From TrEMBL:
Domain NAD(P)-binding: 9-151
Protein name as it appears in the record: NAD(P)-dependent oxidoreductase
InterPro entries: NAD(P)-bd_dom, NAD(P)-bd_dom_sf, NmrA-type_oxidoreductase
Domain of life according to the entry: Bacteria
Amino acid sequence: MTTYAVTAATGQLGRLVLDALIALDVAPGDIVAIARDPRKLTELEPLGVTTRASDYGNPEALYEALQGVDRLLLISGNQVGRRLEEHTNVLDAARGAGVARVAYTSILWADFSTNPLAEEHLATERMIADTGLPHTLLRHGWYTENYTSQIPQYVAQREIVTATGGATLATAVRGDFAAADAFALVNDTADEVVWELAGPGWTMQEFASEVSALAGQQILARDVTPAELVERAVAAGVPEGGARFGAQIDASIAAGQLDAPSEPLRLLLQGREPLTMPQLVAAAQH
């Protein structure tokens, strides 16, 4: 019997991973759901999984939460600038508790990406390698929901303004990434596995066309320079640091760093086609 643990299990991705593990016929009793808030963990009781409360900032609680765990999915923390410290706590606890394998949700092309989020991900990957534990690096592309969640804003503004330079984004929905993560957690056996995970590609112009069809009015895709994007964001009330951060992300997209073949994702989905951007936009009208 193998015991699987998922951190951030009550979050948007973690909750879907639990469902995906059960869909792979992992017994709920062999799944440990770890999350910070005990109240949210009670919502998982109907699944029949074991729940353990622990915070990335609490090494002692993490050690206790990982007792008896064979394979761990470390879902990256969401506090940019604190991720490395938090991930260090998890990995130290995993080694101390005798975890045999670690999987980690990283970012696409982490080893050369200029995306400002990549630095902490790459540092975590190197730290995982230094543990000597067999591991899987699940390098996620962007979530399609990063954009579809903003459709009401785009419709209100009647334009989508980015500095992506017309580049392709190979995004996937959280559910597909979760299913891929679960399959790799259960089935990977090599000492070091790296998955560059991306869905079917699309451009902002194509996205604007889909949103226009949904809204019944023309929504323009307007491409600007990173400097112009910062200026527009600051004028709209975004702090300059946040505006520059967003512009750096768009610059990395323009450089092709959130584009990749979708075959690895299809493989982990056991041949199933990933949900496409147009399908997700169409679903927004229901």
